[in-house]
Amino acid sequence: MLKEAARRGRCGVVAVRGRALLCGMLLCLSMGVWGGPPAAELAAAAGRGDVERVRALLSGSAAGVEEAAAALTAAAANGYEEVVRVLLAAGIPADARSRGGVTALMQGVRRGHKDVVQELLAAGADVNARTDEGLTVLMQAAQEGQRPIVQILLGAGADAGARLGNGATALMLAAQIGHAGTVEALLDGKADVNARAGNGITALMLAERYRHHAVTRLLKDAGAR
User: What pTM did the predictor assign?
Assistant: First the structure.
């Protein structure tokens, strides 16, 4: 019975012949619960898009929160929408954070996987989630020049006016890198074209400083001064 409880991830108190016995941690670890080998294998299977192996592992062991999040982020990073869907259906939270504070949405956004991003947002992922460094997912998309992702995030309610600790916005980040399409998408999403960072810098100043002429024209046409 203890072995069965461990297999099911029930590593608390187990009743045996009318007595309450504590399921041993070593037994749980040997069965793969709390981050044992099957949990690591779950992330590996998810990362290579092996949906059948993912299903088998989900039915046979219970991964810890970080291990489950690692599997979800691995699938999202590599664009495996079906695996993401299976993991979400198994009860893994869309906003679960793996080691380093990374979420599946952050990985999907950074890699430009539109379908994965939409799947995670539909499952309730926070469209304004921030990395440990303070970047919102919209800022990540802006930095990477992911115009379609920027449009998806804005359509889902992402805050175009969110700021880093130094006052920088997604529009400033996109302007500095020179992503004209992303800048245009942010302007369409009502980003403040004249917002200033803490040091007084604007998106237009950054575009001009780095000689991004197409971005400079877009910003001026939108009323930048």
Answer: 0.81
